[in-house]
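Researcher: Sequence of MazG nucleotide pyrophosphohydrolase domain-containing protein follows. Predict its structure.
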Amino acid sequence: MNDLSLLHEYTNTVAPTDRLPSDNFRPILMGLFGEVGGIMAIAKKSYREGKAFVEYRNAMEEEFGDTLWYLAALCRRSDLDIRDVFPAVTTIEDRKEIAETAHSKIAVDEALLELGKAAGTLLRIEKPDRDLQEPLRQFADRYLMALQAVHIPFPQIVDANISKVRGRFLEPEPGQLPSFDEGFPEEERLPAHFEIRIVQRKSGRSYMQWNGVFIGDPLTDNISDPDGYRFHDVFHLAYAAILHWSPTFRALIKQKRKSVPKIDEAQDGGQGYCYRRRTFRVDLFPCKRPRLFPGANERLLRPSENGSAIRSWLRGRGLSVAALGTGDTGRVCGF
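Model: Prediction complete. Tokens:
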């Protein structure tokens, strides 16, 4: 073992993202059990959706990564070195071998059920101490078996989880953030400082005002049961302020990067701001109750089930169709 150990590198990198109580290991156990349940839920969904579940691999990757995070947190609270829990993974060179040589191929269902049993055993733990090493080794063994069964490389899990948790729970270094407008003239850049005033009038419509000028269209919730959609532009403003990225806001203030036609077309004038092109897509802004499509046989808007019906309904009204989402019940609206 050396300082370049893969798991040692992982635990040190994600340790600052651990915000749960250091003197209470029960939230860690519950979190680990919940992530294992998430893995099984994805497997169940793959049975139901079949090939339509295009996010299967990405979803599995995320859940396995989160499970590893909780396992590392449990080792941390038990004063155990995670390398003693995963004895087969010691150095970065082992990355290429872990998914191929740890176990023989077994059925996904069997591997996941064994992982669930091992997680259930951990729930019997009364207190974190070094006696946990053996049950944790058994869990880690089942974890690797399940990981191999779903054919996702271990280093891919590690790298993706590091990127996720550090990006979500740690403040970014300002100097490391991308500058999408660098090299473009001032009139094509998003403003570094801006103030937007959002006003709701007696009519119930909301208006946006920038530098004393109204921009965009007045909005209502466009539904009988109010859900706050009339204020959804705050999300576009937040993207611009925090991420320095918002095709919608850029279009509203007419500061597209037209000096580079490919960027203007693909990023500033494409699906990011599709209202001008009369393109509609599914907006997954949550609705309090499902809406029905007029003229679409009164079927619920569930893209994974009725995508062809939705496209036909839109095309019949002279509208082009952007990529439809695969989430739960939503509504179609200009975006």
